[in-house]
Write a structure and sequence with these properties.
single chain; 233 residues; alpha/beta; 2 domains; six-stranded mixed beta sheet; two-stranded antiparallel sheet
Amino acid sequence: MVGSGWKCQDHLAIMGNCTSNSVRNFRRTSLVIACSALLCSCCLVPDKNPNPTTFEEYLYQAGDKAHCFFTIERTPFDSLTPWSYMDFQGTPCPESVDGIIKILRKKLKGVQIIRSTEDPVVIHVIDASLQQIDHYVMERRTSIHFTGIAYELPTVVGRNLNYEMYAGSRGSNLYAFNDYTTRLDVDAQDQQVRWILTMSLPLSSYRRILWIAWTSRTANNFQTLVQYTGQMP
């Protein structure tokens, strides 16, 4: 019985040692797994900015800082305008129009940045591929006398040129940003379409992005949709 008792104690001691070793090994293994998971998460999860500053948001910020305005001319094909999806967070907003132009020209590829000669506080942002179109509508000239709301102006200009131009908006909300209230009085003689769409807007109360135009190919020609952003509330 004594021998049997010693064997039982020895057995219990061995079990205790095994249990202690198992606990220690388990803790070590758990720690290794946790550290490995942490390292993997740091390596595999991309460092994405959860709150990027979009191109349009940057223009609003830059416009407020330099007291300038923008028009945007682009194609409707998103793959051709990757600059519109760039993250502008952290991009400086100089207090001068020349400074803003310099930054945009450096950051945006395949884009023409043109300062208006008629009104130097207006900057035109133009997808360069559009300027390869023969008789691109925004660079055509016409004469027009128009009194009415901003939403109607593109259609009247297009009718003058026998070209399909109209006002509207892109996206799920058909009425987003369309300007049905601003009244314009346009008297233009042999002026570019780009300037006709801009010249009579009340800049002191209008949004920093004055309008966005999308030009796309049709079966026989091109068409352009112009979206006025409207006055500040």
